[in-house]
Design a protein that fits this description.
7-stranded mixed β-sheet; 3-stranded antiparallel β-sheet; globular; binds pyridoxal-5'-phosphate
Length: 389
């Protein structure tokens, strides 16, 4: 059977060049990067090289890059680390209601431990209003955490404006850029970002490796205590193959991002237009223009998203109902809810997230098989029958 993978916001296949770059660090250069001998020093050099690539890509200095185990750890580190190191100054944190659970649940945890959290609303396209950020700031505010681009609907947030406000008020600004890295450009200086999270497996790199960028001078408390790794900011023997793989993935993204973005936008719009032409009662979720080039989130009225996923899966097509964490539960997405999407319509939502290896032929296959699936599911819906009669 044909297999079409359209769930790249959940994870991406590891680029063959990335795998190739990693292999020697399992087999030959297996040393501990803290060791003084040649085995160790070769590993150390590989880490330094990767660190430089990551730093350059986001406009940072190498010493501002800390390797972690994941995007989730980076988000935890940024938020808890700043909270604990600055609690004498204040205990108020501003975030949005559409963040990834790595941010939301970290804030929720801090909310139960003496911190006050403001969850900002979004408009119907999923955009945070910078004026709301400004208005939420109090003398107690120590951190603003707003994501660069949303993983479920792809909306790109106005983080340039938010960074400007944060800088003006001398408040730390963290952005979760896990979903945007490698898809759209980002520069920590131009955008006044103090902390930035990214993850390897969302940009054709390996799983289990992440980065937290920490601007020089930022007061932050480590999460993981132990040895003196990562300049005392994150203990634990470095994941050398993972770090090398991430460096390679970033190097590839730097070369291919611009072209890929045009390619994916066209492919995504081909999918949207093809579906729109054949199926009625559908809604686009997310910003119509300021959106990640690869992301298309659609609501199909009168059907359950889960049923669409299963039916597409039987035809070899992999999509998701939003975030990997919410699928499997029947609870509607917190992102769509915050955008004001009616629960009945949110239930019928599907996220198509495209990747560099998808082809027009694959997209046309989806356009061909989807209408039959939707019509069949709608035939079973009492609400749809009622509307038609
Ligand atoms: C995937 C994702 C994360 C979590 O990253 P992991 O490396 O999978 O832990 C965090 N934030 C966003 C926006 C994501 O899409």
């Amino acid at each position: 059977m044909r297999r079409v993978y359209l769930d790249h916001n959940a994870t991406t296949p590891t680029h063959p060049e990335v795998v190739k770059a990693m292999l020697p660090y399992y087999e030959d250069v297996f040393g501990n990067a803290s060791s003084i001998h040649q085995f160790g020093q070769q590993a150390r050099m590989a880490i330094d090289e990767a660190r430089e690539k990551v730093a350059e890509f986001i406009g940072a200095k190498p010493e501002e890059i800390v390797f972690t185990s994941s995007g989730t750890e980076s988000d935890n580190f940024a938020i808890k680390g700043v909270a604990y190191a600055n609690e004498e100054k204040g205990r108020h944190i501003i975030t949005s209601s559409i963040e990834h659970h790595a941010v939301l649940n970290t804030c929720k945890f801090l909310g139960k431990h003496g911190f006050k959290i403001t969850y900002l609303p979004v408009d119907r396209y999923g955009v945070v209003n910078p004026d709301d950020v400004r208005k939420a700031i109090t003398d107690d505010t120590i951190l603003i955490s707003i994501m660069h681009a949303n993983n479920e609907v792809g909306t790109i947030e106005p983080i340039a404006e938010i960074g400007k406000i944060a800088k003006e008020k001398e408040i730390y600004f963290h952005t979760d850029a896990v979903q945007s890295i490698g898809k759209i450009p980002i520069n920590v200086n131009e955008l006044n970002i103090d902390l930035l999270s990214l993850s390897g497996h969302k940009l054709y790199g390996p799983k289990g490796i992440g980065v937290l960028y920490i601007r020089k001078g930022t007061r932050i408390q480590p999460l993981i205590h132990g040895g003196h790794h990562e300049r005392n900011r994150r203990a634990g023997t470095e994941n050398v193959p993972g770090i090398v793989g991430l460096g390679k993935a970033i190097e590839i993204a730097k070369l291919s991002m611009e072209k890929e973005s045009i390619y994916l936008t066209n492919l995504r719009d081909r999918l949207y237009n093809g579906i729109k032409e054949k199926i009625d009662n559908i809604y686009l979720n997310g910003h119509p223009v300021n959106r990640l080039p690869n992301t298309l989130n659609l609501s199909f009225e009168f059907v359950e998203g889960e049923s669409i996923i299963h039916n597409l899966d039987m035809k070899g097509v992999a999509v998701s109902s939003g975030s990997a964490c919410t699928s499997g539960s029947l609870e509607p997405s917190h992102v769509l809810k915050a955008m004001g999407v009616e629960p009945a319509i949110a239930q019928g939502s599907i996220r198509f997230s495209l990747g560099k290896d998808n082809t027009e032929e694959e997209i046309d296959y989806v356009i061909e098989i989807l209408p039959e699936i939707i019509f069949r599911l709608r035939e079973m819906s009492p609400l749809y029958k009622k509307k038609r009669d």
